[in-house]
Amino acid sequence: MTKIASIDVGLKRIGVAICLAREIVTPQNAILRKNRNQAARDVDSFLKEWEIDTLVVGIPKGGESEDEMTRRIEHFVSLLEFDGLKEYQDEYGSSVEAKQMMQGVTRQKKDGKVDSMAAKIILERWLCKIPRQMQQ
Question: Based on the structure, what is the number of domains in the chain?
Fold first, then answer.
């Protein structure tokens, strides 16, 4: 079984989710981002701890700031020491969807729960589009 993680890279927090068993995606505690080098180290530690094989990175498609955000996210990913497979998945609307899903469950605190729920959505979208044999 391939161990897969996803990240939703933000300026203040990085949402994180994992898939260790077929089609079950679990949001994890978000990584607080003080600066990009610290955040990259923390993401690397997370990926090593869970022995992740594939990293799915949310990237915005469409919208005014697509090029700028894509450049920033790709730069952040280049700072990672992770040598597994890196995949990019459209994250468009994942944060809005995550906020809607969590309405009433949690007050909109800045604790990263919404960010990690967005990472969960990104990973679920990616899993839906890849062949089932790759998930095993």
Answer: 1
CB atoms within 10 A of CB 60: 18
What φ, ψ does residue 27 adopt, rounded to 5°? Answer: -70, 145
**Residue pLDDT, tens place only, 15-47:** 999 998 777 899 999 999 999 999 999 999 999
Q: Do the beta carbons of residue 86 and residue 57 sit within 8 Å? A: yes
The pLDDT of residue 133 is 45
User: Which amino acid appears at position 35 of this protein?
Assistant: N
Q: Do residues 20 and 49 lie in contact, with contact meaning Cβ atoms separated by under 8 Å?
A: no
Side-chain half-sphere CA neighbours of 82 within 13 A: 31
Q: In this predicted model, which residue has the larger pLDDT, 78 or 135?
A: 78
Q: Determine the structural domain holding residue 49 and report its residue range.
A: 4-135
Amino acid in the structure at residue 41: R
Mean pLDDT of the chain: 86
